[in-house]
Design goal:
Largest sheet: 5 strands, antiparallel
Helix content: 10-25%
Strand content: over 45%
Number of helices: 1
Number of domains: 1
CATH topology: TATA-Binding Protein
Distance between the termini: 36 Å
């Protein structure tokens, strides 16, 4: 779990960019309130789904934003070529 003073949109954009650079297909979900992103999530996976990740981004108090990161990689998977 990570905390930052950055807005939710910036945190989501950071994880989206990093996961795309790692070669994963990324899906972003956002909820808005009063015209601003209030919380969101990033889900990502590679083509054969051996590397996956889920990130939830949400405010916890005032201007502090928390990101919970789950790595669902199947580290024990063997290459099936």
């Amino acid at each position: 779990m990570f905390t930052t003073q950055d807005p939710v949109d910036k945190v989501i954009a950071f994880y989206q960019e990093q996961l795309e650079k790692a070669g994963l297909k990324v899906h972003v979900t956002k909820a808005t309130r009063l015209g601003r992103t209030s919380l969101g999530g990033v889900d990502a996976a590679d083509a054969d789904k051996t590397r996956t990740a889920s990130i939830s981004v949400y405010p916890v108090s005032g201007t502090t934003v928390q990101a919970s990161v789950w790595d669902h990689s199947n580290r024990g998977a063997k290459n099936k070529k």
